[in-house]
Write a structure and sequence with these properties.
globular; alpha/beta; 4-stranded antiparallel beta sheet; 247 residues; 8-stranded mixed beta sheet
Amino acid sequence: MPDTVHQSDIPPQIDPAAHGFFLDLDGTLAPIVDNPQDVSLPDRTRHLLTRLVAATDGAVAVVSGRALADVDRILGTLQLPISGSHGMELRLANGAGGSADQSGMPNPVIDRVEEFAVLHGVTSERKPGAIALHYRKTPDQADACRAFVDTLTSEDETLRALHGKMVSEVALKGIDKGGALEKISATDGFVGRTPIMVGDDVTDEDGFRAAQAQGGFGIKIGTGETHAVHRLDDVEAFADWLELILR
């Protein structure tokens, strides 16, 4: 995948009212921490999101790899359209949509991943349509986790591997953030708006491509190869950009 942008390629100052915003959570709206359960939304970001919702008449969605219920927990009183579990779950602002079938991931796969987690001292997490291995606390297990997930998914054509920042997941094929963006873009409040996808990880690349295919753009947070046409350094830099466009 070509690295098509550079640190100097900051996003333009745009009119929020003409756009729909699709925002990753960890590493985009909230800083990444060692324990995923400890993630919280900074007060500044929460305030800016509230202003962005008002400026766009509600065209702001969170598109996360986390389960929908977990996103709800972190957002708290912020009521936004949410896609959870890399597009497996979808709930719109009016409550339409819902959770995915929890049984989508084969039980033998879940058992093997959880057994691997115990043997290697890493954390497993069940999600709708996926199961993840977190190794932020044990970075020496990164190669083993990635290799295990690659092997496991190569044995079943219905599964795919997702490798992110200190996490590797076994997920169902055909479900991704690009598909989530396309579905939300076609709903009331988002139709006719130019999409902007913002994210920091490999799993956000599908969203970048989908936004750009619709004439919008992606914003990559942090370093690494990307298809996004713009880049910002970190969570704080993204908050600064929001501050700029909301003036």
